[in-house]
Amino acid sequence: MATRVFITGIGAMTPVGNTRQEFWQSLVAGRSGIARLETIDVSDLPITIGGEVRGVDFTRADVNDKVSHRKMDRASIFAVLAAGEALADAGFQPGQSDLGENVAAVIGSGLSGLATLQQQTENLLSKGARGVSAFTIPILMPNAPPANISLAYGITGPCYSVASACSSSGHAMIDAFEMIRRGDVDVVVTGGTESSLTRLGISAFANMRAMTKKFNDRPQAACRPFELDRDGFIMSEGAAILVFESEESLSRRGGRAYAEMVGWGTTMDSYHLVQPDPSAKGAIAAMRKCLAMARWSPAEIAGHTYINAHGTGTKFNDLMETVAIKEVFGESARRVQISSTKSETGHMIGAACAAEMAASALALQAGVLPPTINYDTPDPECDLDYVPNEARPASAGFALNNSFGFGGHNVCLALKKV
Which of 194, 282, 303, 368 could form a disulfide with 410 if both were Cys (CB 3.0 to 4.6 A apart)? Predict the structure, then answer.
């Protein structure tokens, strides 16, 4: 019989806070983490704002003689720091003793290492071959974040990265969940990390017309999921790391849990490389698979369910997601409470689903739903309850976490209150 899986630790490095507590307090307060970018030159870019992780002492990532912040991309640094917080929160002793082979690390990233790639390419062009760092490949490789987590905390079980664009950390958490249910390991350090706020990344997304260019002078108002005047997403960076643990391990340790993961669904649109299918067929199927695995009836749980929406603030995505929720929940859809925390954090790309999983678990535990901020003018086509502008006390017993990625990936994860 498959074991139950619980979230027992959470760590965060985000535009709205560099700890779990700061992250949650900012979400509940409805604070935006979007501002003019400071780490790169944006003077000639069409988009000058984003969600940066600020005020970080990178030397804190030097937890032992095997890892060094000087040999890590920002994405790896964020992952190591958030993993350390998550492990400590779960009751482990990160950095003091090796966790061993009964612990795994599975981390999602969509564009990990982009800053290093850009910098070293510039070195090659301006200085020649000898100007390229010998550490380029180990710094920018997609598996660098989980590898550095392993080196930092002595994890010798399965360790790898997952890439599926914006749903990367969603797929990583599915792998983590199933790894524990099969009995492969007792604990998985999972989630996602991203640091792609580079001139290259911003220019590419801007030219794709995926990001809004209208709010450079009003950055905190830029992320507007489900709102009539939404115009595109705003890219952010950061990491959210969660500790998944088996029921048996949790019982042995006498630990506590934030929530129980009880289901997942994932599908592929096969419609377009970057545009969502307006029929929402793939999203609908993913949500239905997730609900079936959790053994939940949409009509029965609707009034007690919170959905942390993918909610990017693009015209197409938010409408598609609304269509999907209506189809899955039918007449009960208006009783479901929905919010997009991207309105506060911006879009953390490969780390987004993990950050929103953390928010969902914290919401169930606290009995408070974070709001969708910047919701000024309702869109007649997006007409559900998006918890507008202010946090709401609510005794939700169930949560769904939607995540949709470029390529056509759809992920839905289910959490139950404990």
Answer: 282
